[in-house]
Amino acid sequence: MSLLRRHPLSVGLVGLLIAALVGLLVANADALPVIGGGTTYTARFTEAAGLDPGNEVRVAGVKVGKVTGVSLDGDRVRVTFNVKDTWIGDSSTVSIAIKTLLGEKYLAVDPLGAGKQDPSTPIPTSRTVSPYDVTQALNGLGSTFDQLDTKRLAQAFNAVSGAFANTPPQVRTAAHGLAALSLTLSKRDASLARLLDGTRQITQTLAGQNGNFQTLLTDGNQLLGEVRMRRDAIHALLVGATNLGTQLAGLIQDNTKQLAPTLAALDRVTGVLNKNQKSLDKTLSLAGPYYRLLTNALGTGHWFDAYLCGLVPKDYLPTGTQPATGCMPPNTTSGGSR
Questions:
Q1: Considering the domain boundaries, does residue 78 fall inside one?
Q2: Domain that holds residue 294
Q3: Which residue range or ranges hold the Mce/MlaD domain (predicted)?
Q4: How far apart are CA 39 and CA 87, in angstroms?
């Protein structure tokens, strides 16, 4: 009796345990010493600046690993990243850089230092740099402007302008300018709010289409690379087409004297045919019945059927085969001559 029949529950549990172990190994394949490899380091930043797990790690522009984790560590951000076959010195600097115009980030490492960086020691914030996020700044500007009371701001500037009424002309001009600016902002409050809101929506849309833009740029690079590779072939094709055009032009020019009389004669022939089109149509309409009768006369063997009217006297013709009037073929159904 097989083991499955003796202990089906035990076999099922062992199978589930093996499946769970395989799934765990697959999920952590990058951390395995043979399959994944690499060394994991930790760096502390003042802010994450949009960095996400899975973003690239680059040294001198070359991808050497990826970000494995971004988490909050007190008032700082803890970033872990894994690199393979890359020197990380004890004076290395790490910065969050912008990869694309749409705001995707990557981790840039500058491998400095005479000694090797200890993987268990985090890289301090003194050696890390976070970028300035323009998208977040625009979103923050929109939110701040929505909370701004432009009417009170205009009243405040008007009060400042009145307070500086007896000051020197330069000060009064500056105060009046501020008051005019506040009035303009007050009048354009709704328009500016819509503008900033539209800007925020555009940045969000572009951020959502980041992958499509990357694919488009990658395909464009591949197309340009293929065109560059085919440049010599395309150049040879264009040169060949130019030479062919030159040869054809020379051929036509060389044979103009011979072709001109032929074309003129052909033009005269077509003119004659056009003038006699009605006669040609009548001839073709009469030729049809003629050739039909000729085919009937020649279609019975190695001879042709014919009827000669008046050659034999009527007295010699069999009774019943003589035509009543005119010269008609005899009735061959009751016998006749060929």
A1: yes
A2: 269-323
A3: 38-111
A4: 10
